[in-house]
Amino acid sequence: MRRWTAAVAVGGALALGLTGCGLPGGVDGELTNNWQPIAEPSPFVPPAEVCHPGDFAETAYLSSYSPVDCAAPHRIETVHVGAFGAAAAEAAALPTQDSAEIRAAYAECDTKTTEYVGADWRLGRLWVGVAVPSPAAWEGGARWFRCDVTEVTNVEDNGGTASRTASLRDALAEPSPLHLTCYGVRNDSNGAIDTMPAEQCDQPHNAEFAGVWQAPDIPYPTRDRDWSQFHAECRKVIGRYAGVPLDDNLQFRTGVISLPGGAAEWAAGNRGVRCYLWLNERNVSKSLKGAGADGLPIQFE
Asked: Is there a single domain that holds both residue 157 and residue 221?
């Protein structure tokens, strides 16, 4: 019995030895020639249509990236993520805020935000910014830019950002509390505009949002001569809004408030100027949209 068992064991060893000399079907003996190459690591690209709890920052650091569902409290919503063009993509450093690359990115964000919210975003209490990767992420190959939109409490008085619990998608597609309407302008002791709180149009007010003038590529206004051009163009917006002739008498029908964004936004490419008719100390209790010459009569005093 022991001899038979030993013979079987030896035979098994011989069989294993013989088997090791051949290869199973479909095996060529090369260990690496069918391996897929390891993909090059790619930089992080943030998704669109997500919300963020913090305030807007021009530089988006991965360490502070913590998106939330738009039904949760948030202040910023990313509506689009784009890619810089070839000139910027080949640059070693991030484009500056007044560069052609940032202006192109802002123009894309402008268009995408308007599509996202359902109308020109400047018609509402909204603000748009372009966020870029951190310098370290740029060095690592990140070439994206983020289009962020936020609701503000009052665009006229440089209001703060509002906390929301709903997405801004199609927020301006229908009439909503976000739309700019009527205001009660209050002057300071020198006669300059001090505050401009929103009012219901059926309540006494002396100012009303009339529309947006898209300015050409001109310098940001700093002198009275610069502002004169802005006011003249906004008066045309007001005249079309109220339905009155765009003639020399228009200046006697209404005052005007011209509100571009800040100088930094202007440098980045925001050329939209919000235009408001202003009755100074005269109050009305209705909207003057389409009111015509009777609703906006000539006032020589």
From this structure: no
Q: pLDDT (tens digit, 9 = 90+) per residue, 92-144?
A: 899 988 899 999 999 999 999 999 999 999 999 999 999 999 999 999 999 99
Of the three residues 174, 195, 230, the one that is the final residue of a domain is 174
* Alpha-helical segments (H) within 118-180: 135-139
Domain that holds residue 234: 180-291
Contact 205/285 with Cβ under 8 angstroms?
A: yes
In the sheet that holds 255-259, the strands lie side by side as 198-199, 182-183, 207-214, 272-278, 255-259
- What pTM value is reported for the model? 0.83
Residue 18 lies in a domain: no
Same domain, 210 and 160: no
Identify which of 182, 180, 229 has the alpha carbon closest to the alpha carbon of residue 201: 182
Distance CA 290, CA 80 (A): 36
